[in-house]
Design goal:
This protein folds into 2 domains: about 50 residues, no CATH class; about 250 residues, MetI-like (MetI-like fold, Orthogonal Bundle). The protein starts with 14 loop residues before the first helix and ends with a helix. By secondary structure, the chain is mainly alpha-helical. It contains 17 helices and 2 strands. The radius of gyration is 31 Å and the shape is globular. It is a multi-pass membrane protein. Belongs to the binding-protein-dependent transport system permease family.
Length: about 325
Amino acid sequence: MTPVQTPTAAALPTGDAAGPGPGRGGAAEERSGPGARRRARRENLAGYLFMSPWIAGFALLTAGPMIASLYFAFTDYNLFDAPRWIGLKNFTDMFADPRWRHSVDVTLWYVVVGTPLKLAAALAVALLLNQKRRGQGFYRAAFYAPSLIGASVSIAVVWRAIFSDDAIVDRAQRSLLGMDVGGWIGDPDWIVYSLIALTMWQFGAPMVIFLAGLKQVPRELYEAAEVDGAGPWRRFWNITLPMISPVLFFNVLLETIHSFQIFGSAYILGGQAGGTCGPADATLVYTCYLYVQGFENSRMGFASAMAWMLLLAVGLVTAVLFWSQKRWVHYEEAAR
């Protein structure tokens, strides 16, 4: 008798040769047929419905006002009469305005001085909190709290009281340093430093980001550096800063943008000190002068032009920071 031969695996018919088989064609049609397309449309529609509040808010509260302000920047508009097209006159008047140039100087001074000091304070406290100690959670919350309440009107009012004439700061500098300069709030030469001090006090947000970056630095690097005899400063300069440089770049970028947009604290500190924005326009930051032109002088077209110049300036600074990161920011992927 001839033995029955079992077909080998190679001899078995493949799916293509044997036809779709039971259920195969149906599955393919389900994945690419009209039913699948209908399901995909329903899922996309559900997604857009969930996103619709954000889309409506963006269109009505962000994109719409931006487009309107771009139009108003080329018009003479006083909030009451219909806007009248005047072309580039708002921009030429802006560059010729000495108060506008002064507001640019005050803002640049605040950004160049206040931002590095705030980041230095945030990094210093983050380095202290990165060490293992009791009550770390309490200290982190305590140092972060000013960032939650520092931008409020009440804190700015309290800050104004602290730095006013014959207040606690004035008494301390007289008794400890022998300086009798009076209150910082009423002095055009000192009020901007009270504004910078308020900014430094709100270092909690960048501190938390720095602390997260410090947690990612491998301890083996510090141990190897200690074995090689590297001191604390050398370890900080050669290990800590390069390893947290992406976090440092993020904080520099974010805080620089925030510094250009400062308004509330400058307006409140300077509003009760002999002028709308400080004595002798000492706290006349860019946004404060924008507010004066738009809502006090009813020159909304001029204010819109100022707003777009601020947007271009922030965009330029952001582009420069992104260009410069190639020189001092170190990413792990690039190292590999």
